[in-house]
Amino acid sequence: MANGAPWGVVFYTTSLDTLKSSPPENKVMKTATTIGISASTSFYMLCGLLGYAAFGNDAPGNYLTGFGFYDPFWLVDIANLCIVIHLIGAYQVIVQPIFAFVENWSRKKWPESRFVNKEYAFGNYRINLFRLIWRSTYVLLVTLVAMMFPFFNAFLALIGSTTFWPLTVYFPIEIYIVQAKILKSSFRWIWLRALCLVCLVVSGLAAAGSIRGLVMSVQTSKLFLSVS
To answer: SS3 letters for the chain?
Structure first.
């Protein structure tokens, strides 16, 4: 007891007075975003520029195994594990809007259907048969198509080029312009628009190149045989 107060209360009050408060969320997010984008941009630019400078158009899509050897095996295994972890997380984020759209549309289309709307409780979990069957079927079909046409690098380039500009450049810039109330025709407004236009041109060129790669792969490939 101190001055009639329990020791726990005194310790808690003292901790509140001595501990630094956490920085604002927007500053933390800005720092994390800057570090993440800078690291990924540096890595991809190094691989792309140095690879093209060294091998030109013959640069392989996979620098670890594209040269015909797989040593050291542990490095290739770690790289494949990182790809699996990355794709599992990214797939869950990207596919959720598709799932939500189909399920919301189905509930509005068949509001009286028990198959579509009924929830079954299993312990702490709730399962809907329509959601279970629809999502499982979607994943199986996508996996089957990916196995039939395994142009991983070309598909990845096409998806990246078509989603990069709207999701990474256009919408964030538009949101920033509105939020920051940047005046039209000001210097900041002009260079933001210029950046948006340059990225659009780059995305268009990348999409054209990936489409050409897909066309060439289709002409020389066989089903269920990986070519990239």
So the answer is: CECCECHHHHHHHHHHHHCCCCCCHHHHHHHHHHHHHHHHHHHHHHHHHHHHHHHHHHCCCCCCCCCCCCCCHHHHHHHHHHHHHHHHHHHHHHHHHHHHHHHHHHHHHCCCCHHHHCCEEECCEEECHHHHHHHHHHHHHHHHHHHHCCCHHHHHHHHHHHHHHHHHHHHHHHHHHHHHCCCCCCHHHHHHHHHHHHHHHHHHHHHHHHHHHHHHHHHHCCCCCCCC
